[in-house]
């Protein structure tokens, strides 16, 4: 077998992966613009420059595309938040007290970067989460709860006088602000929005 023959499967796999990513990108734009129920499989194929039957080589349905988008971003947030917190976590006693505030600021940076770069996914999740199959919707909810819980533990560690319940409420409020502001402030520069959003989230979470 020649080297070129060995490379062919890899090249085909890479081309397939690229087409799959292209379909996800198209779906993200169209679902955000028109809503999940306003988009047909034909629309996804047309946006990616392929026929509707060709879409089935990558996804079994437009619901499967939605699953990959929403489960994928929930997993990304949960794992990213876990990585940040784990770096400052003492398995015996929880988060190191001196690391609570710096860790919380890193979490804010992480989420603001997400909100600034993925406003379409935020809109899709807000509007079309219920369109997911039951199992996938439960997976998203489970990942979201884990993400919120980690944040709340850090907030509580940063503010010993606060209860975990109070910390959780604050986290939800901060998420609402961080997730909605980039879309609402489209006329402002990204730099200004990022700076102000980080400051506002920090204030909501009791950081000076």
TrEMBL record:
Q: Which residues bind DNA?
A: 40-59
Q: Which UniProt keywords apply?
A: DNA-binding
Q: Which Gene3D superfamilies match?
A: Homeodomain-like, Tetracycline Repressor, domain 2
Q: Signal peptide span per the entry?
A: none
Domain HTH tetR-type per the UniProt entry, residue ranges: 17-77
Alphabetized SUPFAM superfamilies for the sequence: Homeodomain-like (SSF46689), Tetracyclin repressor-like, C-terminal domain (SSF48498)
**Protein name from the UniProt record:** Transcriptional regulator, TetR family protein
Q: Which organism is it from?
A: Brevibacterium sediminis
